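Readers of this paper often ask what the protein records in our data store actually look like. The remainder of this section carries one protein's record, kept here as part of the documentation.

:::
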Amino acid sequence: MEQKKQTSYEIEELDQYLFGQGTHYEIYKKLGAHKAKKDGVEGVYFAVWAPRAQGVSVVGEFNGWNTEANRMERQEPLGIYTCFIPGVQEYQMYKYCVWTYTGEAVFKSDPYGNYAEYRPGTASKVADLSKLKWTDKAWMKKRKTWDHKESPMSVYEVHIGSWKRHPGREDEGFYSYREFGEAVAEYIKYMGYTHVELMGIAEHPFDGSWGYQVTGYFAPTSRYGTPEDFAWMVNHLHENGIGVILDWVPAHFPRDLHGLANFDGTPTYEYADARKGEHPDWGTKIFDYGKNEVRNFLIANALFWVEQFHIDGLRVDAVASMLYLDYGKQDGQWIPNEYGDNKNLEATELFKHLNSVMKKRNPGVVMIAEESTAWPKVTGDVEEGGLGFHLKWNMGWMHDFLEYMKLDPYFRKHNHNQMTFAMSYAYGENYILVLSHDEVVHLKCSMINKMPGIGEDKFSNLKAGYAFMMGHTGKKLLFMGQDFAQQREWSEGRELDWYLLGEENHRHMQEFVRDLLHLYREHPALSEMDKSWDGFEWINADDCFRSIYSFVRYSAKKKKNLLFVCNFTPVEREDYMVGVPMDTDYRLVLDSDSAKYGGNSKRKKKVYTAKLQECDGRKHSIAYKLPAYGVAVFEFEPGAAQKGKRSHEKKGTEKDKQK
């Protein structure tokens, strides 16, 4: 009887060729464990890349973990092992038994597995991703035209396991993906964020790594549910108009025996030379970016999250550690490249390849680099020698901002430039301003406890800082809990201190941040010209002795422009004058001293008309009572005052006629 033609799930010659070239962008549909049917019998097709293994078998619940029951067949030339096992059911556990060149048997979880056993278990589980259901068609269509340069983007960074927990349960009380999706969608819509960024989604063995030491790159962690549950959460967030960003970790992986390290008994996914293949400080392995199959693994993984789970962006972790061969290493611990310097040329090419493919296949998806050095053109076009990212974390701004905000107000006048320096390079890259989890952990203090002073002074300081951040050029990111002034440092082992919202000062802080976020979303001036000096103008960047900053954000059509005035001392300025760019009306749209934020100011007038009085090198100015640590934001546009004057004159003329 003639043998049936190979079915689509099996590894074919073209698959081998593309994988060997590093360009099989959907290799995850072939490698791993996939529900299949062979000769009319249902089962699972297993495939794993283990080039230097002497042999591989599949062991699992379905064969009593018998290492001889299901030996895999080696396919050349790449050393991919395959087998079909009838009767295997979804969610059954399995591993690969890999016989190394020494004859030792090691048990590995599936590098391409889509589901994993709940920790501390380390087995993979069979999952059928073809069952995922989506109703976010409108969102996905709109995403194709989303412009990262002009659109508002305010990111809420969240660690699911410690955002909220169920109290009193015998287990750890984690919210499931579905519970979290419903609760966080409601919170994000109320607050006004545009995106949520999720830490630690890919499967990882150790909670304390926060998900940054991954063993299951193609598996949403089982801590919070199944892959179907994860997809439901993403779908629900999309239906509520919220973008989803994942932290993605292509820089390193842990040494855990069941993971990628020495997968076939030799360095398979990591560089063979420890001087390139290990992070001394982190105790982790570094991917071999020079190996086609490894680059393919990483590129396909990034595409997997975007194309299979509809993820809207990836924040790429530890980019600097990938770009520099000597990152975190002493002399003798690293090897120069072929030109004798410290740049990892293979990692550079990986980023260019990945970002080019992502832009072509998934327009509107945003690639974000956590990169802390002066590497040029991180967000530059690949065609012009750039790495091709859409956005880069502005770590320089974050450092200067936090150092300034920690200072006693008396010393701020000597450090005035720390708040203005970032504008000297603000348009060198496409930046996102970040106050992330790294800044509120490991004895760095929460945001509120970084602030000088005691009591209400801390809250007033932080409000002024957040307002300055929101007005500054660049997209925004804020870590969970900091929007209501969480007092304790973050810990992955407990939920946020939501009970603090029972106290007025924390509720006032949350309300202030909420209004800032809505101001940001509703005013194109704060986002659409983030890449141009035409969108920003200092009014006074040099008022160091009073520690006051004033600047303007312009919209492209010069409509609803915003004037920011920020006072970083506890000294009230009774009649503060600020120069203005136009002879028009200035409408107060945000007052940090408002009673709704716990302020002391009485009702203030809403409109201030420019007067012909020189200030800050401008012909016109307005005078405003600027409170201690006060922030005032005014909206203005050309011709408003003139229209008002003409209206007033017209009314006066009509009255004269009546007389």
In short: Residues 185 and 240 are 7 Å apart (CA to CA). The radius of gyration is 28 Å. Residues 1-6, 643-659 have pLDDT under 50 and may be disordered. The chain is about 25% helix and 20% strand.
